[in-house]
Every structure is written in C-alpha cells, then in structure tokens.
Amino acid sequence: MSIETLIAQYGLAAIFVGAGLEGETSVVTGGLLAHEGLLSLWGTALAAVIGSFAADQIFFFAGRRYRDTARVRRIAARPAFAKALDTLDRHPTVFILGFRFLYGLRTISPIAIGTSHVPARTFIMLNAISAAVWGVLFTGIGYLFGHSLMEAIDAVMPRHKLLSIVAIIALVAVVMTGIRRWRRHRSNAARLTEADRVRSVASTDGAERTPASGDLL
C-alpha cells in the first residue's frame, strides 16, 4: 500500500483528532497535504472544524457537569483559569469567539466557560462560528504556503515528491514549535511582570501603613 493511499485513508481522521487535541500544526500539515492532492482541501478544512468544535464542546460540558468535583477545582486553581473567567466577564462574546487563538488559554477556557453562567446554546453557536473560522484559516495557511514551499524544495530535490512532503511536514513542526515557545516565553514574561507589579504595590502599601518611629512616641 502506497503512502498516498495510507494518507488518503487515515489522513482526515488524523486531522480531526489533531485539531481537537494538538492544534494548528496538524491542520496546517493537512493543508500542505491537500495542496499536494493527498487530501481533499475542503475535507481537511471540515475535519479541522468539526474536530476543534467537538473537543471544545466536550471540555465545556465537562466543566458544566463536573464543576463541583475535586479535579475541576484543581484546574480552577490555576492562574489561567481565573484569567479566562475575568476576560469572559468583561468581553463574553469576543472571548468565546477568540479563546482558541490565545496561547495558554485554549484548552482551559472551554472548561472555565462551562463553570460559568453562559447558556449552553450560546456557547454552541459561538463555538461553531469560531471553529469554522479557525479550521478554514489554518487549512488555508497550509495550502497557500504549500505552493511556495514545494517550489523551493523541488528546486533542491526534483522528482522526490515523498521526500519533499516529509521535509515540509518537518519544517512545519519546527516552525510551530518555535512559535509556541515564543508565545510561552511572552506569557511567562507577562506573568512575572504582573507578579512584580503586585509585589511592588503591596510593598508600597505596607510602607505607607507602617508608622514612623517618631509617630510612636
């Protein structure tokens, strides 16, 4: 059985699972494979949309059904959980539409929303819209960049289609890993800056409340 047949048979299932559990890398890779004719473009986009939508619905209903359990309470103790709820309170519609694009909040946000008072019907509707935009966007990115990448790699490795595809997938994995590390660094830096600010304010307040030695006399 050829590699093309294997990808054609199991590729969309992998995109479906990867979109829900892994994220952009699997969907961008699916777009690249669609560019090479190994997957259907719209089939890939649809698998990405449904996979992302289904995963976040599961997380949402898990948060709603098990909000009082010890496991969800442990998740709720994380700073990202409080940040998700705070943003949800201030911008509910925008946050539900955009959380899957936010590093560090993507998985925990639907659980947090599930513990809130957002109606299930509202979340389903907004989640469907967001998943559709996300799935089509990243599939399209993979498809469009696939053309440029294939031209560049074919110039180096002509008539080696399989090696070209493997090289592209590896490149996508490296790029996405780099982006994630950069986002994680920014998130950690922002968290440390906020912690320093809070400590500074607390120290200032403490100094203001401490009476001078002369005041004690």
In short:
This protein has helices at 3-21, 24-35, 41-65, 70-76, 79-90, 92-98, 108-115, 120-156, 161-209.
Describe the structure.
With 217 residues, this protein is an all-alpha fold. Mean pLDDT is 78; it is low at 1-6 and 213-217. It has nine helices and no strands. 81% of the residues lie in helices and 0% in strands.
Taking all residues together, what is the mean pLDDT? Answer: 78
- Unreliable spans: 1-6, 213-217
Total strands: 0
Question: Strand share of the residues?
Answer: under 5%
Structural class: mainly alpha
**Overall outline:** elongated
Q: What's the helix count?
A: 9
Radius of gyration: 23 Å
Helix coverage percent of residues? over 70%
Q: Which terms would index this structure?
A:
about 220 residues, mainly alpha, about 0% strand, 9 helices, disordered C terminus
